[in-house]
């Protein structure tokens, strides 16, 4: 801004303005480049959509030159030249300020967008870290459950193995016992066979050896023997009173008969007497 700004209208000079016919001859003579204005759009950072095209610049330049020519024809050019220069200078300054403000605004928007993108990326990283933490916890839980399940499966396998081993052990014992029993039955069969053969070898007399007389004599001798042996017992029973009252004593587990215990003691005494 400290450098002087060349007028957009080279047709303006202290010697006067060119005629309209001269303007129509060659429009390129009245084109003002950015170099003439001492203005570099790339250096200033002006966006492309804010720059006018060559054709638009020609049209604008032609219209302004026409207005200036009208002012020159009416004789008011010299009276307003100083004011016009100030207005044009201020317009250029305002335009440059506007461009700079827009550039600053675009820069602020760009920085804001970049900062928002950075925050968004940071949030994504935090979410990824949280998801990784949750997945780690779930994997730990699954590992713990797998360990518990593996332990239970080991216990079940051990129990099944023990049951199978016990079954085979019992089956072996049963087979052994069955074998020993079969051997015992085989020996018994052999013994019965030998006994049968021995019985068949015995000679039995055809005449009966047992008669009614012999049986009567046998029973008579047995009866006399029993009477002789049980005579002291009969005498002792006759001496005992038949109407003696029954005495009962309460003991743990029920009543106990005193008479029954006394009869038992007497029976022991009678047994001793008989044995003597």
Strand content: under 5%
How many helices? The count is 6
Low-confidence segments: 1-35, 255-261, 267-276
Spatial sequence of strands, sheet with the most strands: 1-2
Mean pLDDT value: 67
Question: What distance separates the N and C termini?
Answer: 161 Å
Structural Rg: 72 Å
Q: How many runs of DSSP E, i.e. beta strands?
A: 2
**In sequence order, what are the helices and strands, one letter per element?**
HHHHHEEH
Q: Which term fits the overall shape? A: rod-shaped
Question: Which structural class should the secondary elements be placed in?
Answer: mainly alpha
Helix content: over 70%
User: What kind of sheet is the major sheet?
Assistant: 2 strands, antiparallel
Describe the secondary structure blueprint for this structure.
Elements: H1 20-25, H2 41-44, H3 54-74, H4 77-201, H5 212-239, E1 248-251, E2 254-257, H6 258-275
Antiparallel strand pairs: 1-2
Biased composition (Polar residues): 1-22
Region (Disordered): 1-24
What keywords describe this structure?
276 residues; mainly alpha; two-stranded antiparallel ribbon; 6 helices; 2 strands; 73% helix; 3% strand; rod-shaped
Please, could you describe this protein's structure?
There is one protein chain. The protein has 276 residues and is an all-alpha fold. The chain has a domain at 246-276. The chain contains six helices and two strands. It has a two-stranded antiparallel ribbon with strand order 1-2. A hairpin with a 2-residue loop joins strand 1 and strand 2. The longest helix has 125 residues, at 77-201. The radius of gyration is 72 Å and the shape is rod-shaped. The N and C termini lie far apart (161 Å). Residues 1-35, 255-261 and 267-276 have low confidence and may be disordered. Residues 1-24 are annotated as: Disordered. Residues 1-22 have a biased composition (Polar residues).
């Amino acid at each position: 801004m400290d450098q002087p700004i060349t007028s957009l209208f080279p047709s303006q000079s202290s010697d006067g303005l060119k005629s309209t016919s001269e303007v129509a001859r060659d429009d390129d003579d009245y084109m003002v480049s950015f170099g003439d204005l001492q203005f570099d759009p790339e250096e200033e950072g002006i966006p492309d959509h804010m720059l006018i095209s060559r054709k638009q610049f020609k049209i604008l330049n032609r219209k302004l030159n026409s207005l200036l020519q009208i002012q020159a024809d009416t004789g008011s050019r010299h009276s307003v030249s100083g004011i016009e220069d100030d207005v044009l200078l201020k317009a250029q300054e305002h335009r440059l300020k506007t461009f700079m403000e827009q550039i600053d605004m675009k820069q602020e928007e760009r920085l804001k967008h970049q900062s928002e993108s950075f925050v968004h990326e940071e949030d994504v990283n935090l979410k990824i870290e949280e998801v990784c933490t949750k997945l780690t916890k779930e994997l730990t839980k699954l590992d713990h459950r797998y360990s518990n399940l593996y332990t239970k499966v080991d216990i079940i396998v051990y129990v099944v193995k023990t049951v199978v081993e016990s079954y085979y052990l019992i089956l072996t014992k049963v087979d052994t016992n069955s074998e020993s029993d079969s051997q015992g039955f085989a020996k018994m069969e052999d013994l019965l066979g030998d006994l049968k053969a021995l019985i068949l070898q015995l000679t039995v007399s055809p005449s009966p050896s047992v008669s009614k007389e012999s049986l009567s004599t046998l029973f008579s001798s047995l009866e006399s023997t029993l009477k002789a042996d049980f005579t002291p017992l009969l005498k002792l029973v006759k001496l005992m009173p038949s109407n003696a009252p029954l005495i009962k004593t309460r003991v743990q587990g029920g009543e106990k008969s005193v008479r029954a215990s006394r009869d038992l003691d007497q029976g022991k005494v009678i047994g001793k007497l008989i044995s003597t």
